[in-house]
Structure formats: structure tokens, C-alpha cells
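Lab notebook: predicted structure, single chain.

Context: the supervisor wants predicted structures on file for every construct in the current expression panel, including those that have not yet been purified. This is the next one on the list. No modifications to the sequence; it matches the entry in the shared construct table.
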Amino acid sequence: MTQQASPVKLHYCPESERLLEAFGETVQELTILNEQQFIAILNGEDDFTRFDLLIHMATEKKQQAKYEYLHHVEKHGC
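Prediction complete. Output recorded below exactly as produced.
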């Protein structure tokens, strides 16, 4: 039997929490696009590369959100 770790609930300032939530949303968006592309490949779709630009744009958005969060934490220590 495997045991899953319980998520640790940390306390963040409202801005830090907002930025972390925004980062999480971008991670989810990117994951969905990767999954959709993978499914297209599994289904033998010839145009599976149609996801490449969307994945690139989602990756850039995720990086931006990550660095906004990290910058806030570094600047404010929260």
C-alpha cells in the first residue's frame, strides 16, 4: 500500500497567493496542451504539430508567471 503525502498548507500574503495561483493556472494550461498533443499523436493525426506554437506560447506565459511569483517572494520575503 502506498501512502500519499498530504499537501502542506503554507500561509502567503494575498499578492503572493494571487501570483502563485496564476502560476498554477499556467502550469495547468500547458499540461492540457501537452496532453492534447499527445492524444493527437496517439490517434495518428498528421497535424499534431498544430499544438507546437500554442505550447510555446503557454510555456512563455508559465515562465513569466513563475518569475513574477519568484520576484515577489524574493523582494518581500513572503
